[in-house]
Amino acid sequence: MSNTSSDTAAVETLEWKVRIPKKRIKDKAWMDLKKRVIDTGLCSHCSACAFVCPVQGIISLPDRGIDFPDWEERCIDCEGCLRVCHRWEYTPLSDLGEYIELIAAKSKRFKGQDGAMVTEFMASALEMGIIDRAIFVGRDEEWRPKIYHIRSVEQLRDTRISGTKYSYASVLPELKEAIRVTKKGIGVVGTPCIVTGLRKIQKEFKIFKDKVKLVVGLFCMENFYYDQLRAYLEKKGVDMRKLVKMDITRGKFIATMPDSEISFPVKEMDEIVPHGCERCTDFTDVLADVSVGSVGSKVGYSTVVVRTEIGKEILDYIREKRYAEFSNVIPDVIDKLIKLKKKRIKNIPGEYLTVAYKKDTEK
Ligand SMILES: Cc1cc2nc3c(=O)[nH]c(=O)nc-3n(C[C@H](O)[C@H](O)[C@H](O)COP(=O)(O)OP(=O)(O)OC[C@H]3O[C@@H](n4cnc5c(N)ncnc54)[C@H](O)[C@@H]3O)c2cc1C
């Protein structure tokens, strides 16, 4: 990239200078992004554009898609949003991806959605001194996603921080603050769209490549806008304030409350699956250092895909400290879900896909 100042200075002053993208349509950059990615339903809601935009706090992350209301007056046409958008030129990812180890595991120290291995990996990375801060998606009393900057293992015992929230969360915009204060490095947890957006940011800005030391990805079939999910669940009789856990398992959405459980086929929720999710094929979060999911292992365990050396180093530490119990995975089940997600991809206009992907699907 063509930064004239150092990356660190860029972060501090929020001045981002980026290369001119190859394909410009017309108008200001934001309008290009809107026409090509947002209006076509390709936007994954990863929030990388909100992260990079120097007109701070202007790209809003309301619950119905990314928007920049006053773009005509306020967009400074820096083109940062185009450079970090992973769907501007879209290569859908898929399959199990590269990995060093594939195992089922359950943390002995933490409680989580499944085997709490996401929490365990981050806690161990903090203990090992690889990172001094991790960005987690916790929740408020009504299960609205809330970002937490975790700095100690103790903070991770809060059950509002662990567990799955089936709503989009603005993880990437938090990176700027985290990078400014970290000394050792940052850990990030995210769904495949967040992780793909993060990798794009890391390509553009070296400081994020250097400082984000651990990326734990989540398996993901789909996500929802909080307002829509809440309205849907309330219609089914769920009281968000009493909710203890949400889960999607064996084709069912299960809402657990202290004295009752409400469940229904997840297929019924198709009408509120955002368009961006319908265009995603990445079930296992292939760009993460470690991916964690629930399918493929027995109840109470997490399926863990260790992809990189840093992930392996942390897994070895967890083993050495006996922080987890281990078991085998059932790869066929993971494979089934990978294929299902790939199969249901909805019409992506051909001109938006990269040549590499077109060749792959023609096979
Ligand atoms: C939207 C969504 C859909 C999913 N779909 C599937 C699926 O179809 N099949 C499957 O096997 N697994 C799916 N998962 C993953 C699964 O629900 C568990 O998160 C995973 O098994 C890890 O469990 P754990 O006990 O190790 O995690 P924990 O130790 O409980 O940690 C989970 C962490 O995930 C993060 N998180 C929670 N919600 C979000 C969110 N909305 N956005 C970003 N980060 C978040 C939080 O930081 C949280 O601490 C999905 C997760 C999400 C968020």
Give structural notes:
The protein has 363 residues and is α/β, with parallel strands linked by helices. The chain folds into two domains: 7-84, no CATH class; 101-347. It is built from 14 helices and eleven strands. The chain has helices at residues 7-13, 29-38, 48-52, 71-74, 80-84, 117-128, 175-181, 192-204, 206-211, 226-235, 275-278, 309-320, 331-343, 355-362; strands spanning 101-107, 133-139, 145-150, 186-190, 212-218, 245-249, 252-257, 260-265, 290-293, 302-306, 324-327. The protein has an eight-stranded mixed beta sheet, with helices on both faces. A three-stranded antiparallel beta sheet has the order 6-7-8, with no helix packed on it. Strand 7 (252-257) and strand 8 form a beta hairpin. The longest helix is centred in the middle third of the chain and has 13 residues, at 192-204. It is globular and about 55 Å long. It starts with 6 loop residues before the first helix and ends with a helix. Residues 1-20 and 354-363 have low confidence and may be disordered. The protein binds flavin-adenine dinucleotide (FAD). Flavin-adenine dinucleotide (FAD) binds at residues 112-119, 136-137, 145, 161-167, 169, 171, 189-191, 194, 218-221, 223, 248, 292-295, 302.
